[in-house]
Each structure stands twice: as structure tokens, then as C-alpha cells.
Amino acid sequence: PAFPPVSTTWHSNDDDVYRAPPIDRSLLPTAPRAAREPNIDRSRLPKSPPYTAFLGNLPYDVTEESIKDFFRGLNISAVRLPREPTNPERLKGFGYAEFEDIDSLFQALSLNEESLGNRRIRVDVADQAQDK
Asked: Among 52, 69, 33, 43, which residue's Cα sits nearest to residue 105?
């Protein structure tokens, strides 16, 4: 037949005709509740760099890589995981993630209480004063 079966015409190869809009993850029912509308007071965010998040309740086997993976998709510039001075193998259970822009920090905060490893980790605005 001159026409291909109906089912193939609308998702044929000229995919410029029909491009699905990028998925707004906040509309997905599976989105963490925080992603829907982070109840974060934007006035608590730093006005200028560094845009640093405090990470608490980290598993002791966490690595910089796993932190970067946790925040994948965000512009993360640095991860700092303090270690016990007496036992450099052992992490203190908290750390800091530094982001390149305010929006990445804001997004990161919406991951508060998401699970990393087997723990729900705390993501909060790092206290700028103590971070110097």
C-alpha cells in the first residue's frame, strides 16, 4: 500500500515534527515530595559563592564519587568529607558539597532526607561563617 500502517506514521523518523517536551520531573508522582516545591526559604541561600551545602548523616563508607552521583545533574564543583584525625580511614559522618550556581544549591536542598546508601541524609545550607 502507498501509506505505511497508521501506527508508524506519527512516530516516524522525522522526529522534529513531534518532540516530547522535556519531562518536568517535579510533576512525576514519584518525585520526592521536596522536588515538587522545596519548602526552602530562599533568603537562607548565600547571596554569593561559595554555594555550599552541608551534608549530614552520611554513611561511613560514602565517597566523593557517591556524593557526586547523588547530586548528578547539578553543577557540583567540590566535595569535602572531613575525616577523623585519629582515624583517617573513618569519615566524620558529614561533609560539604560546593555548587557552581545558586540553582544547583537550591536543587540540592530539595534532596534533603533522600536516601544515600542506607541512610536518609540531611542536606542543608552550610553555615557560611564557619566554612571559612
From this structure: 52
